[in-house]
Amino acid sequence: xxxxxxxxxxxxxxxxxxxxxxxxxxxxxxxxxxxxxxxxxxxxxxxxxxxxxxxxxxxxxxxxxxxxxxxxxxxxxxxxxxxxxxxxxxxxxxxxxxxxxxxxxxxxxxxxxxxxxxxxxxxxxxxxxxxxxxxxxxxxxxxxxxxxxxxxxxxxxxxxxxxxxxxxxxxxxxxxxxxxxxxxxxxxxxxxxxxxxxxxxxxxxxxxxxxxxxxxxxxxxxxxxxxxxxxxxxxxxxxxxxxxxxxxxxxxxxxxxxxxxxxxxxxxxxxxxxxxx
Length: 277
Known about the structure:
This protein is mostly beta strands. It has strands at 5-6, 12-13, 15-22, 28-35, 39-44, 49-55, 60-65, 71-76, 81-85, 90-95, 111-116, 123-128, 132-137, 145-148, 157-159, 165-169, 177-181, 187-190, 204-212, 216-223, 227-231, 237-241, 248-256, 259-266, 269-274.
């Protein structure tokens, strides 16, 4: 399986991110996994065998395939974005901040999320501790644009394939879930983290956020250790799993037999929430 790596002191070093690649029939075929040990590994889903791997001398926290599945990106603790050719399993470009101190055309701290544009195989976004969304062309060595305002500490960066709206989940008390316009970079809205009729004011510092199909937003985090699903049109919370034993650090969305659902992980448990509303 996708086992954890062991460091020099024999401590387990976890898998930090996985992304799936589909075949021509849109069936899951390959998954890409990054490890805090610096390993990047491609696994075959059906055979459960490892295909290719590469080792970097940094901690890696995130990865994402481009829309044509010919390349993928990674981000880590050296503030850089690495671009890989999938077939060759080789790094083909290293993206980082330029030498000028007058402009922030790259990251100044750890990178915890990367996301390729859903329709442009060269454009990607990244977020981390430096409160910026950096926008890159993976053929250029530095960022081409930036958006200020998101403090991301996990897999909480996504882009809507219909309107190209950016979703971020920040690890902070206020305005943690936000929607941004890709073209202009402006903040569209702060998404409320409780129902309007609810008296629940419990803070949730977000570690993960994702567009859940066309109709929902899913997010999760720590403090109240919760996963929440919000309807996009009304911005109302329609489902919540709270007071989990551990924080919610990862989630995903899928459909099975026409029924949408969100799955999240907390500690050693995996939770499923049906969105058949």
